[in-house]
Amino acid sequence: MKYWCLTLTLLFLSTPAIGQQVTIYTSSKDSHDRLTRTAQSSFTKMDQPLETQTCIFVMPDKEKQTVLGFGGAITDASAEVFATLKPKVQQRFLDAYFDPEKGIGYNILRTNIHSCDFSSESYTYIEEGDKALNTFSIEHDRQFKLPLIKAAMDKIGDKAVFYASPWSPPAFMKDTGKMLQGGKLLPEYYQSWAEYYIRFIQEYEKEGVPVWGLTIQNEPMATQRWESCIYTAEEERDFLKNYLGPTLHKNGMEDKKVVVWDHNRDLITQRATTILDDPEAAKYVWGVGYHWYENWSGGDNMYQNAGIVDALYPEVNMLFTEGCVEKFNPENYQLWENGERYGRSMINDFNNGVVGWTDWNILLDQNGGPNHVGNFCFAPIHGDTVTGELTFTPSYYFIGHFSKFVNKGAKVIASATSRSSLLSTSFKNPGNTIITVVLNQNDKPVEYYLNTGTSAAPVNIPPRSIQTLVYKMP
C-alpha cells in the first residue's frame, strides 16, 4: 500500500493541474521583444505524445545539481568605465544587473587578483622582490574596483558569491622575470605566492567584502601576451596540496572554496583526473572551473567534457568561470549571434552539471576596453565614456532569461527535447516554481508542447528566439 501511495504522490508532484498557467517571456531577433512577457498557455491532458509533435519533456521530480547563481566579473576595466558615468546612469547600471525586479538579478561576482589584460596597466600589491610580502597593499583597488564591488554587493545582499582569480604572480617570482607571456612560478616562491592569496582575502575582508572563494590560476595552459602563468596538471595539484590548501587551513580559511583548472573544456578531463584522483589534493577542492574558448582551434565547443567530469566526480562542483565574445567591433553591438552563443552555452552547461555561470567583464567602454594589451572584447553592457550612454547587447538579455528567473538554491531538473530544432534546460526554484528555458536558433518558428508527465501546454517560439517559461507545480 505505501508504494502505491508513493507512486501517486510522485505523479501528482510531477504533473501540473489541468488548466495550470504557463507564463512565457521572449527575446526575439526580429522584434522589439527583450525579456518581454509575450504570451500565456495552459496545461491540458496529454497521455502519449506523437512522433509528429515537437516536445520538451520536463521531469520535476528528477532533481540534479543545486544552483549557486549567475553573474560576471568586475575587472579594473569595468570599474574604470563605471567611474566615468553620471550617478543616475551608475544607478541604472547597478539596477540592470543586480536588481531582480528592475534587472536580471546577478548574485555572483569575480575579480582579478592584481592586474590582468582588462587593466589599464600591469601592477601588483607588493614592491618588486618583496618575498615576505611586507609591502602588501590593495590601495590600487580602492580607487575604482572596490567601490563598484561594494556597490554591487550591497545590491545583491546575502545571496552574494564573490571570488577572485590571479592572472600571474609578480614578475620576480617567475622563471621568465615577466608577468606577461606565460612563464612559470619558481619553486622557491610557492609558499610566498600561497600567502599572497591569504593577504588578498584578509585585506578585502577588512574592507567589508567577504570572499567566498578563489581559483588557483586563470587559464593555466595559455601563454598569453598579457598576464599569464603556466601550470601543468601535476604542478597545479602539488601547489594546491603542498602549499595553497595547507596555508588556507593554517590561517582559518578552510571555508574558502578552491576552484581548480579555470580554463577551457578541451583539457578539463585530464586536469580534473590528475588533481581529483590524488586524495591529498582533492580534499581542498570545491570545484572545477572552466571557460568556453576551446573553439579557438576551429572545432565545436566540447560541452560534453564538463559532463564527463561531473559524472566521474559527482561530489565536486562544476563552475563556469568565464566567457565573452572576442574581437570587439562596434558594428556588432546588436549582433544576435553573440547572444545565441550565450544561450547555447548556458543550456548545455547546466545540462552538463554546472552549478553557477560567470560571464567575463560586466562593463566595457565604446572601444571594448580599457585593455593594456589591446585584447578588446564585448560585454553585455557597454558604457560610452564620451556620451555617458549605456548600450545593452543581446548577450545581456540572453543571460537574463536564466538569471532573472532562476534563484540561488534552485535545482536543475531533468529535461529533454524531442527534436534538434530546439535546445532547453529546466530548473525548480524553492517553492516549486519551474523555469524552462528554450532556444530556437532556426530561421523558422517552432510549435512545441511543454510536457510534464500526463499534461502538456502548447507553445510557439518565433525564429531566432529565446524563451523562459514559468509555471507552478502543486
From TrEMBL:
Domain Glycosyl hydrolase family 30 TIM-barrel: 68-406
Biological-process GO terms, alphabetical: glucosylceramide catabolic process
UniProt GO molecular function: glucosylceramidase activity
Gene Ontology terms: cellular component: membrane
Keywords assigned: Glycosidase, Hydrolase, Signal
Keyword Ribosomal protein: no
Domain Glycosyl hydrolase family 30 beta sandwich: 409-469
Pfam families per UniProt: Glyco_hydro_30 (PF02055), Glyco_hydro_30C (PF17189)
Keyword Hydrolase applies: yes
Matches recorded under InterPro entries: GH (IPR017853), GH30_C (IPR033452), Glyco_hydro_30 (IPR001139), Glyco_hydro_30_TIM-barrel (IPR033453), Glyco_hydro_b (IPR013780)
Coiled coil: none
Domain of life of the organism encoding this protein: Bacteria
Signal sequence region: 1-19
PANTHER family, per the entry: GLUCOSYLCERAMIDASE, LYSOSOMAL ACID GLUCOSYLCERAMIDASE
Protein family: Belongs to the glycosyl hydrolase 30 family.
UniProt-recorded name of the protein: Glycosyl hydrolase
Organism for this UniProt entry: Robertkochia marina
